[in-house]
Amino acid sequence: MSNQTDPRIQAKLDEVQARFEKRLEEIKTDGTRKINEVTEDSPDPNSVEATVDMTFDVKFKTTTIKFDIPKFSKELQKIIFDIPVVKMNTKSISWDVPATKMETRCIAKKPVVTCNWKGCKTEMKCMYMDFPVAYMKRMEIKVDLPEFTMKKQELSFDKPVIKLETIEIILKLPQFHLRELSGDLKEQESEFKEIGSEMESKVAIAKNEMDQSLITEIADQVDIIFDEIRKQLIDERANVSSQFDNAISKMKSTIKIFKY
Hints:
Blueprint: H1 7-38, H2 48-55, E1 56-116, E2 119-178, H3 189-259
Antiparallel strand pairs: 1-2
């Protein structure tokens, strides 16, 4: 499970902060131009920092912006349950039943005279008759009998996990304190103070604009991500439903065997 901030949100944070830093540079450049107009010097684009630092004692006030953004991740969710499984086994069933059969028995003897060249002789020979006789007959049949066992069925799916993460952006806002002026510059002290106040006011406005940009642009990005998660949930629900349907189908087949 990933715990990293979504790259798209991080990219938007970097973009908003880069715009703010660019705005600060523009405020300094504009302040340098106005200072040069007061001192009637030609503006030098390469000496923005030097011009401002020579006129103002620039101190930076550290401020922080804190807000919560959702952090998205996935967690594997498992559902395990037992379903009946039927297996047909061939078994032999045997039992005894009463039956009758005919047996040939000797019921009486009679004399029989036989003669040959040696002479005649008399022998007693049986008279036979068939009689029904009762006995136990072994019967056997083979049948397919269902054998039931329980089989574990496992369903798995990715469950979205959303946590709030506090993001802290540290900013250093410049504050312009007019240095001790001497000579001709002393006469323009009020104008320099006005320039410094204007620069600080623009910095405050840029900071408020950055706050609003973070609220609106990050919110828009979060909405896009939520739409993607919603679609993933719908797809995942269809997948889990399909697995449940298969398990239910197996159980119905087992119930049919019970009925018939």
